[in-house]
Design brief:
Two copies of one chain form a homodimer. Chain A is an alpha/beta fold and 245 residues long. Chain A is built from ten helices and twelve strands.
Amino acid sequence: MTVVLKLGGSVVTEKARDETVAGDRLADLAETVADSGVDDLVVVHGGGSFGHPHAAEHGVSSTAGTSDAAAVRDIAAAMEDLNEAVVGALADAGVPAVPVHPFSAGFRDEDGKLHLPTGQVAAMLEEDFVPVLHGDVLTTAGDGATIVSGDDLVVSLADGVGADRVGLCSTVSGVLDTDGHVVPEITAFEDAADALGESDATDVTGGMAAKVRALLDLGSPAFVFGPDALEDFLDGDDAGTRIHG
Amino acid sequence: MTVVLKLGGSVVTEKARDETVAGDRLADLAETVADSGVDDLVVVHGGGSFGHPHAAEHGVSSTAGTSDAAAVRDIAAAMEDLNEAVVGALADAGVPAVPVHPFSAGFRDEDGKLHLPTGQVAAMLEEDFVPVLHGDVLTTAGDGATIVSGDDLVVSLADGVGADRVGLCSTVSGVLDTDGHVVPEITAFEDAADALGESDATDVTGGMAAKVRALLDLGSPAFVFGPDALEDFLDGDDAGTRIHG
């Protein structure tokens, strides 16, 4: 069983406080990961209060680039710091976690397509390491460098390593309908269009609608859930919203 | 003009003192790089007193692997620290340097062949960044993780980015003959066999003989020189020993 697990930036950091790791929450999640019986696990985490303030300060987003090497270094360094904390928490819980920095591996081409080699990640899984990637700055043809989100990486990795299950653990319990209840299953975008309540045109920053569309295109089932459901997800049970196109 | 430049570990660190950057020497070299007119430059540095003590402590070499994720994290972290110092020195001199960590990008396969994707490096060059790689720990099929030397990376990068010139800057002034004089040119291994005085059998750690053999196989001329000749090399002049098969 190969699993790609995203830990949202709002889960692993205190989003309201600059460069602050959510230490207790992260330690709990790490214990849950350590206790799971997943054979091959890839972890991806978001930027939270590390990546986002630095990206905003330099005016960099997934679509707005920078040619300033100092900005690239600054964002990359902030994300390396957060990655060290996440890898460290997993290691403290007994997970054989190792760091993988997307800026060192991938790029976007002229058409905006993400190229993320995954041979190294597959090799790490084969050697029983748990690679831990993160949202990052990324060299982008014609645009200097832009931001690659954890969600973008999850989709690319799931394809690359042939994931059996994909999990997105954030602070919400799943995709919510207009009454605030978790939608149990989405098999087509129309199932959730009302609940998501967003058109593609208003969703350039990668909100839930774009996320659902990308997950529907995967070959494997994806789950969107909150921290309390991580154990269920890792046990192979349903958790939060099940998305499978 | 695309140039791959290796700065040896003995040049950028004080080899006799654990985890000590050779700050003044590094600053001088960075100024020389900043003043050069090279269009597309890739820098690689060795491990020196950062990588080697950690690798030795964990019993890891280019041929002896480890399956201990803690050892991998320890060596990778030491090399990230040195890389930050080298990138920082180049940045202080005005070079648009950005960090590239080989552990995040590459691996060795079952046959020991190095797989190092270079699409990201080519994209960085195209965006006028100066990627700075380094000797590192590297996931190795069947063997956990081993060490990849800066020299191995140079050969792989030179092919990958189509380098016009390759430079190896170390503390010696070139390939020396038995009288201690610099051999000006090597076009076949036999030219230097006496001087190198080593058979392949006694050269498993990647000494000068293995280095010369690998450089002879490149499509571009390579130069082995000391720090004083860096300016000549970057100016396109001959420096130290010219190796071209």
